[in-house]
Amino acid sequence: MGQQILPRILVVDDDPGVLASYRLVLEEQGEFTMGPDIEAVEREIFGTTTSRRPASRWNVRYADQGEIAIALVKKGIEANEPFTAVFLDVRMPPGLDGYDTAEEMRKLDSSIHIVVVSGFSDFTEADLLEVAGPRQNFTMLPKPVWPADLQRLAARLCNGTTEPY
Amino acid sequence: MGIASKLSAAMVLAFAGSAAANYIVVSTTVHPMFDAIDRDFAHKTQAHISEVITTIRNHVGMETEEIASRDETLDLIQGRREFGANSSLVENLMLVGNDSVQVLIYRNRDGQTLWHSAVDMHAKFSMPDLASEIEKAIPAPAGANAQNRSNVGFLKTSVGLVVVAVSPVFERHHNQDIAGSVITGAVVDPKQINEGLAVLFDFTSATRGDSASKLNVQADAIESQLELLGFDGTPIGRALVYTPRSISKAGSAAIQSAMMIMLASAATAIGALWLFLHTSIISRLTDLKKHLSTAGDSGEIMSFPADESTDEIGGLSRSFNRMANQVNHLRNALADSCYLSGMSQWATTTLHNLRNGMSPISTAIWQLQRNFDRQWLDTLGQAVAMHAADETPVEQKQKLNSFLIGSIPRLIDTGLKTRELAARIERSHAAMVRHVANFEQYAHQDANSESVDLIAILRDSAEAAIIHQPLNFDLRLPEASPSVYANRILLRQIMFNIFAYARDEASKATHGLHSIGVAIRNGHDHSEHLTVSIRFRGRVLTDVDRKDAFEVQLQSAPPKSRGLGLHWCANALHQIGGSVQLTSQGPDRGTSIDITLPKFQNVQKDAA
Questions:
Q1: pTM reported for the whole predicted model
Q2: Which residues pair with B157 in a beta bridge?
């Protein structure tokens, strides 16, 4: 039986704190804080357990500069492992900003879903839609993105569901 | 050529033109008129002289005939009387009628001189040589060839021009028979004519080549000529009459005086006009021009000193003052605008940083929520309640014990994670507070210039531009610097933009550590300015790159905006009295952005 190929998500942001947040939210692993015996007792008494959570159903890559992100997208296409979605910041000095990065990514991959996550954008949604569209492959979110919303969006884009698990 | 020079030239030309016009009028109309008057007078004088000479001839001729007709004369010639003292010879000499020299010669029928005498009647001495000279000059016709009529003419002698008359002496009873002749002569005294007619009279040789009727106009006199016929009827010379040009001289003097008066009047009038124009218009315009020429170089345009006059220049200066007020107002508005633009740019950056800072906080909160899972808490609550209930079976209670005890590690773990999350929240909170405080530190400043700690601004703006960069940067700042006179907000934004530019260019360096160095040195004029040099190594900049660096960022396709570029920095620096230039030492030798700033001292903007 072949290994399931998980959807790929690319996160691009120059702020290390923001990248750390993305990592915590998108790479949440299943947690086992109680032993299987306790879980069995919990199931016996309450019919379910609260101690296990399924792992995220995607792979995440990170980049802190637009040029690096573009190279990753290109590499993924060449390896026939394209990214399903990219979460893209706008202000990323000193390199390309989100506007240019989105424009290049769209040229490389017409189907990648570009999610622009903006702290304070110099561009309107219409500006970005012009280079990152079409509308069905573009989303714009303000920072900070509520982690639950981030997970739900990732689930929708990668798995077509509303729940990440 | 300034208006003053043009005015002076115009005045000089007007004066010269006036003088030239006067001269032309005099030359073409007045002088010819005087010439005509003088010529006419000379003609009249000439005619008068001619009359005088004719009169003298006629008088001498008539008197000679009178002498010849006397019986005494016949007796003397025929020997019946002797030439002696009793004769009327002296009387006859005096008959010629002038005070100069009289000549009297008696000849017989054969032409022999019987008696002659030449006497200077004025000086009373005889001149025998003159008598001999005349005798020789007058041929003595004899016999049948003797002339039987009188003849008068001029004769050139050693003493001058002499009017000579010859009259035949007839026999007493035979009127046609000639017994002899009488010759008289009178010297023409030019001096007498000069005194009598107030002209200069002179005698010259016979031929002069030009027509006797032609007037020779000279400066002081007009020379006219009278042809003098000799005794034989041929011209022996000419009498020169010099008619003084007293009328034209007097007239010319009068004209010259009038011209001088007119020119003096014109010069006075022109000078007065020049003085009036110079003081009331030129000097005021010059002051206004001087004021305007320096106004553009000053920081704030000073108003022109109050000119209350109601003329055009007064109106112009008042208009300038109104314009200056508007320009100063716009300048202040621009300064405020630049200030606000800087604040706006900074505010957007601060907001961006705040939003980024909120991400860890929201993530931590979300983790807290997930750690304290609702379902898990409800399950724990139910377990506790069921354990406390009396109706719960013992076996059930034991299982509940196991569950509750088994959940303790999770509780502990959750608590520990909660503390970590709280610490993370606290750090993010502190960072956000710092961002806001940093912004607030400058947000309350106004748009005026003040003393600014340059090192503090450099450090703050450099760190803001380079912070969070994954690239390695070696930033070297000087330790100390004089204060500069600038607007703090503008200067910080300017330096931020320049450091951001330097960072972008330095990051393109192909090798080595990306470094940015800052040096401070005195400007070319040691007392007023200093220069901040930001040096870095990056890509090689061409002359076009250096030029375009301060141009409006045309390469940014709309609606894309890269924020405030070096173009804004150049303008903002000019606003606070500074300047910027980009220099490159050559390939692989680095680039320097040199910012000149005024030192904080007793700065006095030297306005117009």
A1: 0.52
A2: B160
